[in-house]
Structures are given as C-alpha cells and as structure tokens.
Amino acid sequence: MAKFTQQKINSLRAHWAVWLFPIIAIIICGWLFYDSVQKRGPIIKIMFSDASGLQAEKTQIRFRGVSIGYVKNIVISEDTKDVIATVHLQKEAEQFARVGTKFWIVSPKVTFNGISGLETLFEGTYIAALPGSPNADRQGEFNASISNETTDSDENMTPYYLEAENVESIGVGDTITFRGINVGSVSKVTLNKTAQLALVQINIQNRYVKLVRSNTVFWRKVGIQADLGLFGSKVKVSSIESIMKGGVEFFTPDQAGERAKWGTRFVLNAAPPKGYEKWNPEIN
C-alpha cells in the first residue's frame, strides 16, 4: 500500500514538473506583454512624398540622438500620392503626438555646404523629430517635412504650384530663389490629374509671399546660360550647386500685379524671359 502511494506521489511530481516550465513561460510572456503595453505610447501616422530608406520594424524615430519610437509598417496611400508610415512612440514621448511636431528623414547627404547624416551609413536611415508646443492639441496624422534646414515650420510657409511639360533637374528640396536669395523650396513633384503635365508644389516663406504676384514669372534655374550671336557671344555661369542640382527662380515685371492667392498655379518656363534683368518693380 505504501509502495503504491509512493508511486502515485512520484507520478504527480512528474506531471507537475512537466507543466511547471510551460506555466513559467506563460507567466514570463504575460509579464513581457504587460511591460511592453505599459511602455507603449501613442500610435501616429506620418505622410511622406518619398520613403526611401525607411524599413518597417527597423527604422527608428529619434530626438537629439535618443530613440523615442519606431516605424511599425509602411503603406501607400489610396491615391498613390503619398507613403504612410505608422509609428509607435514610447510612452514618455507622448508630447511628440501634438500639433506643431515636425518629422523628417535623415539620410547621408552631400552638398556644397557640407556633408550631413554620415551616422546613417552605419546605423541606417532614421526619422528625426522636433516637438511642438507641450500645450498644443493631440494629433494623430502628420505631413513630413523635407528637412530641418530651416527653422520655419509648415505653418510659416505658403504653397503655390508650377506646371511644365517636363521637370528635368527639379527635385524635392531644391531651392526657390528671388534675386539670388533663398525664399522657399520644392516640396513635391508629381503629375497633374490627367498626367499631361508635371506639377511642382513649392513652399514660399510667409515673409516673402508679397513677392509672388499674379504676373510673376517662374523658370528653371540654369547653371550655364549662353547667348551666341554673329558679332559676339556671352556665357553666364552660375554657382556650381546650380549646375549640379538646379532649382527655380522667379521675378516680376515692372508693373507688378496683385498678390497671388494661396495655391495659385503658374507656368514653369524652361528659361528666363528676355530682358528680365532690367525689371525693377516696386513691391510693397
């Protein structure tokens, strides 16, 4: 009888040992899940015109070099015009899910002003963030900025549109200049609804909006201009950056028209109009 009882006890111990490890594993998994939920912050969506270099489950969101979240997944918008990245922020980064927060992609970039983003050669492309006001309203969707080269936020920019048969040498981030001064940048390059023309969205800093008039003329920045004639030739060479990268220039005739409204469309000319150097409008 005692032997039978001992065998039963040993059997129960064996069964308990078999179930012990799965129970411990379930408890550990439950704790890890609870801990991840406790640390998880807001889920937001960021719209990009181009998401080159971004990877789901790998690309980090950083502020001052510290990771504050990551990209969960990446999809194309229904109208195929944007790329939408779903981002999981950490709990302590809730302030980045507020109106005014700025996001932009950091990747290796070489310009004539220097080299930036070299750390991404080893760590990969990441999304940098700059928080808005801590008292601002919560927000779940954001439009990514081109870069952080300017302190002007999207709220301090006014968009206009340029139409052309082709936009070779024009790309996102190119400068918009007036009298050689940088007053804005190209924010998007796409096709119009009928795909008959290329459509370039430009953002002009609000302090320079008065320069854009109803009769303002826009043209592609040309690095080298040549005027060849029978009795003489002239060659004008712009900056090396203009030759390599391009951009857009604009000017207004002497009789300046009314201020152009937000979203006005202009023709993007392939070359500057003749005699524009003599234009000297008084713009108030």
List the helices and strands and how they pair.
Layout: H1 2-39, E1 40-48, E2 60-63, E3 66-76, E4 83-90, E5 102-106, E6 109-111, E7 114-116, H2 120-123, E8 126-130, E9 141-143, E10 157-164, E11 175-178, E12 181-191, E13 198-205, E14 217-220, E15 224-228, E16 233-237, H3 240-244, E17 248-251, E18 265-269
Parallel strand pairs: 1-9, 2-8, 10-18, 11-17, 14-18
Antiparallel strand pairs: 1-4, 2-3, 3-4, 5-8, 6-7, 10-13, 11-12, 12-13, 14-17, 15-16
Describe the structure.
The chain has 284 residues and is α/β, with parallel strands linked by helices. It has 2 domains: 41-143, no CATH class; 154-273, no CATH class. 17% of the residues lie in helices and 37% in strands. The chain is built from 3 helices and 18 strands. The protein has helices spanning 2-39, 120-123, 240-244; strands at 40-48, 60-63, 66-76, 83-90, 102-106, 109-111, 114-116, 126-130, 141-143, 157-164, 175-178, 181-191, 198-205, 217-220, 224-228, 233-237, 248-251, 265-269. Strands 5-8-2-3-4-1-9 form a 7-stranded mixed beta sheet. A 7-stranded mixed beta barrel has the order 10-13-12-11-17-14-18. Strands 6-7 form a two-stranded antiparallel ribbon. The radius of gyration is 29 Å and the shape is elongated.
Task: State the helical fraction.
Answer: 10-25%
Q: Structural class of the helices, strands and pairings?
A: alpha/beta
Q: Which spans have pLDDT < 50 for at least 5 consecutive residues?
A: 149-153, 235-244
Radius of gyration over C-alpha positions, nearest whole angstrom = 29 Å
The count of strands amounts to 18
Distance between the termini: 109 Å
Order of helices and strands: HEEEEEEEHEEEEEEEEEHEE
**Count of discrete structural domains:** 2
Mean pLDDT: 79
Oligomer: single chain
Shape: elongated
Provide the spatial order of strands within the biggest beta sheet.
Answer: 5-8-2-3-4-1-9
Count of discrete alpha- or pi-helical segments spanning 4 or more residues: 3
**Main β-sheet description:** 7 strands, mixed
Strand content: 35-45%
